[in-house]
């Protein structure tokens, strides 16, 4: 199976030395005074051939096929240059002298650059542009659109990429991945995860995305403990536009949206927006989704400053499929989609076992290019969220809900069937800022930034119906737990060119987290608790532009991260876990051949006090995570691409890793033959595998572009394959508790037509899992002892077999 999944990568490596030469575009990039610009980015459009200028400002783009192109040249602090080029057959060599003009400001760049990695930042990162997103966007959540990028594993509760989805990077779970939109934190302040279902169709508003693997740069919000995803939506679109998008497909999936923009009005105003609706039944039974969202951005652009207001919102109503499918059902077609949610109700499952939540985001962003050297960015934000999970529960104890027994004539009722709603009503607000300085000679790039954020969460539960209502009233509230969290950080970043092509990077961050919540005292009573944590997160590294074909970097970073809500609330001060710490060492190298490139990154991520579930019950009777002294991820990432022939391109990436806990003790519940609880038994494991951390992840893609008629028409065929190695569901390395390795392939056709009466007309066909593989991407397990023998309950999340989506986009 493995050879099928990494075929593209092996073919890439075998072809690197066999590519034929064509026209070479070469030259220099300077400022108006003739000073060479080192690290300027050059890209040929259409396509992705490009280069970076060296220490003398020189560049070379070899083996360019005949055709009409636009050469895009960009450099921080300068206006982007676009030069049309016409390359004839056998032209040989084209020499260019390119001069970039200093620019007053670029609003979208100032918005996000403080938390972004630049061309000479010594870390592993990938930029995903709008041109990469648009061909694959057919209403699926961002984790599915990003699943072909290095070290990524994506999952879908409903099995088809709509509804609840998740993403892991290098095995790092979603609660440890920092996510920002326009530099503003998106992670939930308490769980620290990102619920993409609350942001349906957000990919349609993203102008670019940067994925940083490892600790990354200092950013705002939850601690980046393995990866960062920075999303930018503020790109200036100077021309008016309107686009209608829609798709239909398997499982009754339907997507419709309209995107619009005013262009630049009077050279000062812009308005951009989107309205979206997505519905799907899902592959899993009773895993339907009904999603809606909007995005609106209005900006005023002055001569050296800009003010932008951004608001976006998401509404989701999803039937819950988070219990998974029992293992015994997976091999039976009629049972493979079984969803046990709602089955506590006798007869038909409870039809309203749904998650019903809405979230509104508001951002006010101000940028000011103070001078050629200085720029300032600040933003205020507010997020309002409210919603509930509704659930039918059978045989619940009245006492657990604070209700009195019901005394009938001949019996006393102590249990009842009921319907409950678990509510979350929250507010999140704050501000971020960054002050940037670039020296006259461009050797020093320095940023001072930070932010302050305040979160208030109201958690409460309601009983909206009960068979025996006892002394309750309508919408009886049986618990309430408020929490307040503050998050302050300040950071300073320096990137200095020590010698020609050699850059030193230093990034220092201080972060303080304060949390007030209802917890337990030593006697097990509920009391108000307060925790304050202080973190220092330093990062340093070197980047070396060896020549115009190769570059290398090395870095070391430290990251700290606080426990989440459950770790605080369901413990006392004696049993509460400590914060986690990560020491991240990264070494990278990139080489560019005439028509190919390869990038290698080696990493060693050493965790101290990483938090894991071990089954132990703490002093208040709760299963909470515990610190393990030492664990690590050691890996090698390889990514590359090659232009095999005119229109034919091969891309691939793979990750080889070792992910271990040095020593791990598991506690399992013990029951007798009557299921009477007897206590717990401990088992210790040495050098055991970290859960959900495959040793091998590989992806490859082969695309062929044809029917190119004077930039008016193109037809692209793409076949992509993904391989994910075996994963352990818990931390015991138990071969009976695994997700099997799997391989799947997607086939895509994109047809783009640009007639005179339309800006663009695009047809998309996506056939997912084209070879109809059976596989599961996520699972849970509960290990215990029953009547003296080990027992294991499991739930798996199977993904859909062969399915399709077909879409149409009309650009006006």
Automatic annotation (TrEMBL):
Residues 327-770 form the TonB-dependent receptor-like beta-barrel domain. Pfam families: CarboxypepD_reg (PF13620), Plug (PF07715), TonB_dep_Rec_b-barrel (PF00593). GO terms for cellular component: cell outer membrane. Residues 120-227 form the TonB-dependent receptor plug domain. Keywords: Cell outer membrane, Ion transport, Iron, Iron transport, Membrane, Receptor, Signal, TonB box, Transmembrane, Transmembrane beta strand, Transport. InterPro entries: Beta-barrel_TonB, Beta-barrel_TonB_sf, CarboxyPept-like_regulatory, Plug_dom, Plug_dom_sf, TonB-dep_rcpt-like. Belongs to the TonB-dependent receptor family. This is TonB-dependent receptor. It comes from Phaeodactylibacter xiamenensis. The lineage of its organism: Bacteria, Pseudomonadati, Bacteroidota, Saprospiria, Saprospirales.
């Amino acid at each position: 199976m493995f050879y099928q999944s990494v075929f593209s990568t092996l073919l890439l490596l075998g072809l690197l030395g066999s590519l034929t030469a064509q026209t070479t575009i070469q030259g220099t990039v300077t400022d108006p005074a003739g000073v060479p610009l080192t690290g300027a980015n050059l890209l040929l459009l259409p396509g992705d051939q490009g280069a970076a200028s060296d220490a003398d400002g020189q560049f070379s783009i070899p083996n360019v096929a005949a055709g009409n192109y636009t050469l895009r040249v960009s450099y921080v602090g300068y206006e982007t240059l676009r030069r049309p080029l016409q390359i004839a057959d056998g032209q040989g060599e084209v020499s260019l002298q390119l001069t970039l003009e200093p620019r007053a400001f670029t609003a979208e760049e100032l918005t996000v650059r403080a938390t972004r990695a630049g061309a000479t930042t010594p870390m592993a990162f990938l930029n995903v542009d709008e041109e990469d997103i648009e061909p694959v966007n057919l209403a699926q959540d961002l984790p599915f659109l990003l699943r072909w990028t290095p070290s990524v594993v994506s999952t879908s509760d409903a099995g088809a990429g709509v509804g609840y989805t998740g993403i892991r990077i290098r095995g790092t779970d979603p609660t440890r991945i920092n996510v920002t939109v326009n530099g503003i934190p998106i992670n939930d302040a308490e769980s620290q995860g990102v619920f993409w279902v609350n942001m349906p169709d957000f990919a349609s508003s993203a102008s670019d995305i940067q994925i940083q693997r490892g600790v990354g740069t200092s950013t705002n919000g939850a601690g980046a403990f393995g990866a960062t995803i920075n999303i930018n939506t503020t790109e200036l679109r100077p021309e008016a536009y309107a686009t209608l998008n829609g798709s239909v497909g398997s499982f009754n999936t339907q997507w419709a949206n309209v995107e619009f923009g005013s262009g630049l009005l009077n050279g000062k105003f812009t308005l951009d927006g989107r309205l979206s609706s997505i519905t799907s039944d899902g592959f899993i039974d009773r895993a339907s989704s009904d999603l809606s969202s909007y995005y609106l951005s209005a900006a005023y652009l002055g001569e050296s400053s800009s003010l932008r207001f951004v608001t976006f919102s998401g509404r989701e109503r999803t039937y819950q499929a988070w219990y998974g499918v029992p293992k015994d059902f997976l091999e039976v077609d009629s049972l493979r989609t079984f969803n046990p949610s709602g089955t506590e109700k006798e007869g038909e499952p409870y039809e309203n076992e749904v998650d019903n939540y809405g979230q509104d985001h508001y951002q006010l962003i101000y940028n000011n290019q103070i001078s050629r050297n200085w720029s300032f960015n600040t933003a205020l934000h507010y997020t309002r969220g409210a919603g509930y999970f509704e659930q039918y529960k059978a045989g619940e104890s009245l006492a657990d809900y604070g209700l009195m027994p019901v005394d009938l004539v001949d019996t006393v009722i102590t249990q009842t069937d009921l319907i409950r709603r678990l509510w979350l009503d929250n507010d999140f607000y704050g501000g971020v800022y960054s002050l940037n300085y670039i020296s006259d000679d461009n050797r020093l790039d320095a940023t001072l930034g930070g932010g302050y954020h305040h979160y208030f969460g109201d958690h409460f539960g309601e009983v909206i119906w009960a068979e025996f209502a006892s002394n309750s009233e309508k919408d009886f509230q049986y618990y309430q737990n408020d929490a307040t969290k503050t998050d302050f950080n300040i950071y300073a970043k320096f990137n200095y060119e020590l010698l020609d092509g050699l850059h030193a990077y230093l990034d220092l961050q201080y972060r303080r987290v304060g949390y007030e919540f209802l917890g337990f005292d030593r006697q097990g009573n509920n009391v108000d608790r307060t925790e304050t944590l202080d973190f220092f997160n330093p990062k340093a590294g070197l980047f070396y532009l060896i020549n115009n074909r190769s570059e290398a970097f090395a870095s070391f970073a430290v990251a700290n991260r606080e426990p989440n809500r459950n770790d605080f609330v369901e413990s006392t001060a004696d049993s509460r876990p400590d914060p986690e710490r990560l020491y991240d060492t990264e070494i990278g190298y990139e080489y560019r051949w005439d028509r190919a490139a390869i990038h290698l990154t080696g990493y060693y991520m050493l965790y101290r006090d990483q938090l894991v579930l071990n089954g132990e019950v703490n002093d208040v009777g709760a299963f909470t995570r515990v610190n393990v002294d030492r664990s690590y991820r050691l890996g090698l990432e390889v990514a590359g691409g090659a232009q095999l022939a005119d229109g034919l391109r091969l891309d691939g990436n793979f990750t080889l890793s070792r992910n271990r806990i040095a020593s791990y003790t598991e506690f399992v519940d013990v029951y007798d033959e009557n299921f009477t609880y007897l206590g717990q038994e401990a088992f210790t494991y040495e050098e055991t595998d970290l859960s959900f951390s495959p040793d091998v992840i590989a992806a490859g893609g082969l695309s062929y572009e044809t029917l190119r008629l004077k930039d008016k028409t193109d037809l692209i065929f793409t076949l992509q394959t993904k391989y994910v190695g075996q994963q352990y569901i818990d931390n015991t390395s138990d071969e009976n508790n695994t997700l099997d390795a799997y391989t799947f392939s997607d086939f895509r056709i994109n047809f783009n037509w640009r007639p005179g009466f339309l800006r663009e007309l695009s047809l998309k066909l996506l056939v997912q899992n084209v070879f109809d593989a059976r596989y599961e991407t996520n699972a849970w397990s509960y290990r215990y002892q029953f009547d003296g023998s080990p027992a294991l309950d499991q739930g798996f999340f199977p993904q859909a077999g062969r399915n399709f989506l077909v879409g149409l986009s009309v650009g006006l």
